[in-house]
User: Fold HMP-PP phosphatase from Kluyvera ascorbata.
Amino acid sequence: MARLAAFDMDGTLLMPDHRLGERTVAVLKRLRERNITLTFATGRHVLEMRPLVEKLSLNAFLITGNGTRIHTQQGEVLHRSDLSPDVAEEVLHTRWDTQASVHVFNDGGWFTGQEIPEMLKAHVYSGFRYQLRDLRMMPAHQVTKICFCGDHDDLCRLRIQLVEAFDKRADICFSAVDCLEVLPLGSNKGAALSVLSRHLGVGMDECMAFGDAMNDREMLGLVGRGVIMGNAMGQLKAALPHLPIIGNCKNQAVSHYLAHWLDTPNLPYSPE
Assistant:
């Protein structure tokens, strides 16, 4: 029996309309009744995640900013990492060959340079939103991550530029097909979950995790039971071909899988 369960949010726990389904909430509460520690591991900001967890009374640890922050169930900071100021400054002051929008995250929230109403759709149920800033004027210290959002092919070309510029100084990772992130070197959900598991005295082999994007790769590969969503990025499925693939987030596939795992663990599982 796993002692800790870690969940990505977008494309995994959340349905395409960016909300948690009732069956998903119910099965998460069943895990808590079995004394399984819940952890939400997401690219979203803690300022957005904390109210959600409190509203649902799920009493979970939070890994936010794709591993740059860990918060305890009481809201205390357990771990933090930031981009090197020189990297953050260079990212923000370089003219990259891309049409993607740029987004900066720090403990104060989410910042961007122009109104992009369509990006707020992913946050419609929380009300979390960006703050408008001249990004070139923002301080480069204590930046958790910088995101580029846009067309996937454009971002693939941008990734080549970023890797060439920041090799061994930052990690460059797709958190979705339309979102490329510049993260502190060595920061990812897997590394953060390892920190949390040591803090709790839980072995990584006693953890299970669910995800759908390349920013979940390290986490899924390190736990004893990693599970990939049916709607996951093709790159993730190719990177971890030995892991099981379940159904689509639109059908609350995580709840379907966990209900089977809780009720009939000795029977083979078939996606819905």
User: Anything to note?
Assistant: The mean pLDDT is 96. The radius of gyration is 18 Å.
